[in-house]
Amino acid sequence: MHVGQPVTVKLSCIGTVPMTLAKPRGSYACEALDENGKSHCISTWWTIPTSNLKAQFQRTEAQPYVFLEDDEERCRQCRLRGSRRWRRVKAAGGKQMDLLPNSAPLATKLRNTLIQYHSIGDNEWRVVKKTKDATVWHKPSEEFSGYLYKAQGVVEDVTNRIVDHIRPGPYRLDWDSLMTTMDIIETFEENCCVMRYTTAGQLWNIIAPREFVDFSYTTSYEDGLLTCGISLDYGEVRPNCVRGFNHPCGWFCVPLKDYPSHSLLTGYIQTELRGLLPQSAVDTAMSSTLTSFYSDLKKALKHKPTVT
């Protein structure tokens, strides 16, 4: 690639556009001029010489697709062969979005963080709500200015089935009254995935619907399971939603020693709802959401046949 070289840029809407490379913009980007003299920032990863038009329609490891940075839909759909990551680039002059993370180190770090939360002494927690289904505590979070919440209750079912209803999958939308949509964006090995989901408005819509993009990981823990997650800054926010952020969170589910058909379910949640919200509203919503989570889950488990 060199300044003044003619290239062809592929657009999802109108096909290919001839351009001329003008000047570099970092290691893998450059400024290019179209036939009208308009300047565009393009990635040199996806540019090809005009003399090789046939190659622009071939999807290969080196040249999967060619597009402008302001071609959002093509950027969202582009996927590198041989990799389970998507590359997206924002409009010219904007922020380049990260690739989806390497799942293995993120999963390990997430698991260790949750185990650390699980070892926090009882004297550091303050009870904020208690119902027949669960007890909720909180303590100041070390991740942001809000709280880390702990919820715990006994659920009458085996661990595998409980976790199947909690982690991303076909059951969650059926019973979780807070969750309104859920899409699996990407799946990895070792029970990892990235999901996008939305939640309903709360407290008479004082808290508007939220959207989250979370990395999720499910693994064994002692005699039971741990399913955990953390939010990613990835993708465009849906209309009429505020993008929230889940700092490390998760659910430990272990069988009771004397009653193996019952499980102790312990959750750690620290959700940054974002937006202009009174802290009292956030605190009320979080504690109510967690106790409702247990009651809704128990109802769902009773209405389906037990699988051991």
Can you offer a commentary on this structure?
There is one protein chain. It contains five helices and 17 strands. It has 308 residues and is α+β, with helices and mostly antiparallel strands. The strands form three sheets. Strands 6, 7, 8, 9, 10, 11, 12, 13, 15 and 16 form a ten-stranded mixed β-sheet that branches. The chain has a five-stranded antiparallel β-sheet with strand order 4-3-2-1-5, with no helix packed on it. Strands 14-17 form a two-stranded antiparallel ribbon. Strand 9 and strand 10 form a beta hairpin. The radius of gyration is 24 Å and the shape is elongated.
What Rg is obtained from the alpha carbons, in whole angstroms? 24 Å
- List low-confidence stretches: 44-98
Examine the coordinates and then state which fold CATH places here, giving the name of the CATH topology of the largest domain: Alpha-D-Glucose-1,6-Bisphosphate, Chain A, domain 4
The CATH superfamily label of the largest domain reads START domain
Number of helices: 5
Question: CATH class of the largest domain, anyone?
Answer: Alpha Beta
Cα(first) to Cα(last) distance is 60 Å
Strand content: 25-35%
SSE sequence, one letter per element:
EEEEEHHEEEHHEEEEEEEEEH
The total domain count is: 2
Please tell me the overall pLDDT: 75
Question: Can you describe this structure in just a few lines?
Answer:
Pfam families: START. The protein is α+β, with helices and mostly antiparallel strands and 308 residues long.
Keywords:
308 residues; alpha+beta; Alpha-D-Glucose-1,6-Bisphosphate, Chain A, domain 4; 2 domains; five-stranded antiparallel β-sheet; 5 helices; 34% strand; elongated; StAR-related lipid transfer protein 4; START_lipid-bd_dom; START-like_dom_sf; cholesterol binding; cholesterol transfer activity
